[in-house]
Amino acid sequence: MPELHGEQVDEFARPHGTAGPLIDYFGRLHRRLLGDGYPPVEAWRAVFEAYLDGKSQTAGRLRPTRTDRDRWFWSSALVGDFGSSDWGSDAGILALTRYLSQSKVLVDGFVEGMARSAPEALVVAMRRARLVLAPDSPQLQALRVVRTLSPIVDEAVRVHDVLVGAHREREVDLARWKSMLKDTRGRCPRSC
Asked: Does the structure show a pLDDT above 70 at 16?
């Protein structure tokens, strides 16, 4: 079994069938901070910041990837303990944005829970996650499923769909103009 700073960690199955450690790094960080006397709000903030800073903590000989850190954070029991005010903080919205902008780590029911408990934070994160550029994102599909749970999530999904349509139109126009430019280069005399 792999070790993390001398502690044994459990094994789990990664999405593509390769084995790897399930490290409760963020849960242990939170418990350690509370044990050191940090107020709960500061401990939550430190956990969010540890997730967002992207500095890789070594797990024995393992060098975790961003996907590993995403998996560790989003599978942590702490995620369910965050309140709507935690998710509404700057760090909480950044964490939600990071979750929505990736597609390798999906947590069943997470988007639904956010639509019920912190829809404003979810909508802000949705806007910042650049989902218009990824219209087939599984996170976006989850947002479409839960859109009826909150009027502001429903409106955000409708606006998103309009923006996706406009983006596609611009891509078609751009491709048309590029092809027209290509055609004119072939007909231009050497003096052009």
From this structure: no
